[in-house]
Design goal:
Helix content: 25-40%
Order of helices and strands: EHEHEHHEHHHEHEHEHEHEHEHHHEE
Strand content: 15-25%
Structural class: alpha/beta
Number of helices: 15
């Protein structure tokens, strides 16, 4: 059963520069940034007072939650995940299961790094004040990591796997590959896969304390995220969620579903925090092995890859990532694929980054374009020696890629790489 074809039939997005797929696609095509100055971060004396976070009205939540679910809701990651997940499900042409019988062949794999940190804070204060009985009945589901997958699984009535994965920045990409593996092995027909990340100072504060965020762009927030740039000075924190309905080709064809792209395969590994790898730095040998194994698992050759959506966080490791891609693909200069980083437009959305960036990757395949990288006109000289300047576009290209590699490299020296292909 391990050779079943797997496709993507639905997309959902809650991003700093778009909360519906059409808006998000327009933003990435036009180079519209979702990074903003946040007054609250200034008041809290953060060095970096900017971030990327989704914007929508409170009334917007009425489209996704009933009055009981909304009561006491104080978990941005839960909101983002539910919105993107429900949107993806409906985009795939799937109905909400109203039956008492679960959908035995449908499941949810939705990751997060941390969930409901604001709800945690609220609960801590109430407990410390001796008001534990005022916590409410929804505190647990908003603060347990698996709350997001359990919430979605219950709303949709899924009877297959319903679980939450967590692997730092690799979370979303890993969730997609977990879904792919389950479907290709015949253990499910449809999986809603994605990841989400909370917004706010309690999430971003630790990174600010590490002094790895850019603090010189508080007055020019849209210029702050600079992947592959000579003047990159750290990643801009972001938040949101991305969701993809992943389905067996047989199921999609039987339903007459729109198919966005095909998943050819991928690979997940760890560098073991050895040989230069650490909690915050990648082991290059493991990164190269992850990419080459993803290619092998997908039954393609490295020269077939037309574009790369990289991890590329606007740190000193960007040059090393490009070097690792060159080594893994045995391609450089003008032979190198096009490469871009969504983080120039939305920041680093942490656990949500892999899923949000995968939605952007799939849209490029379906709609025939390569989005441009903003803020890297001053290409880092080490990257310039490895890759042809035109392979790192600063404006959107009218181009029809056939195969795109998407990779995420996370805290803890963990890696994930998935290979997407235009469906035919």
């Amino acid at each position: 059963m391990g050779n079943r074809r797997v496709v993507i039939t639905g997309l959902g997005i809650v991003s700093p520069n778009g909360t519906i797929v059409s808006e998000f696609m327009s933003s990435i095509q036009k180079g519209k940034s979702g990074i903003r100055f946040i007054e609250n971060l200034k008041q809290l004396k953060f060095s970096c007072q900017i971030a990327g976070y989704p914007i929508y009205s409170n009334s917007y939540l009425n489209n996704y939650f009933n009055s009981i679910q909304l009561k006491g809701l104080n978990a941005s990651g839960m909101e983002y995940g539910v919105i993107s997940g429900i949107d993806a499900w409906k985009d795939a042409g799937l109905e909400i299961n109203q039956s008492n019988i679960p959908l035995w062949d449908a499941g949810v794999i939705f990751g997060t790094g941390i969930l409901g940190v604001d709800k945690f804070r609220e609960a801590i204060h109430k407990v410390d004040e001796g008001k534990v009985r005022r916590l409410g009945s929804n505190t647990v589901i908003q603060t347990m990591a698996s709350g997001i997958s359990a919430f979605l699984g219950g709303m949709l009535g899924c009877g297959n796997i319903v679980t939450t994965n967590s692997s730092a920045c690799s979370t979303g990409t890993e969730a997609i590959l977990m879904a792919y593996d389950r479907i290709t092995n015949g253990k499910a027909e449809i999986i809603l896969a994605g990841s989400t990340s909370d917004s706010g100072p309690y999430v971003w504060g630790g990174f600010d304390a590490m002094r790895i965020l850019p603090y010189k762009y508080n007055d020019n927030p849209t210029e702050a995220s600079r992947p592959m740039s000579a003047t990159a000075s750290g990643f801009v924190p972001g938040s949101g969620a991305g969701a993809l309905v992943i389905e067996s080709l047989e199921s999609a064809q039987k339903r007459g579903a729109t198919i966005y792209a095909e998943i050819l395969g991928g690979h997940v590994n760890s560098g073991g925090q050895r040989n230069g790898g650490s909690m915050t730095a990648p082991n290059s040998e493991a990164v190269i092995q992850c990419i080459t194994e993803a290619i092998r698992n997908s039954n393609i050759n490295a020269e077939q890859i037309d574009a790369i959506n990289g991890h590329l966080t606007a740190t000193s490791k960007d040059s090393l990532e490009i070097q690792n891609w060159c080594t893994a693909l045995n391609r450089k200069g003008d032979d190198f694929p096009y490469i871009n980083s969504l983080k120039s437009l939305v920041g680093h959305c942490l656990a949500a980054s892999g899923s949000i960036e995968s939605v952007a990757t799939v849209l490029q395949l379906k709609e025939n374009f390569i989005f441009g990288n903003i803020n890297c006109e001053d290409l880092h000289p080490d990257i310039a020696t490895l890759v042809g300047r035109h392979k790192i576009p600063t404006d959107t290209l009218d181009y029809s890629p056939n195969i795109i590699a998407k990779a995420s490299f996370g805290f803890g020296d963990v890696n994930a790489c998935v290979i997407f292909k235009k469906y035919s």
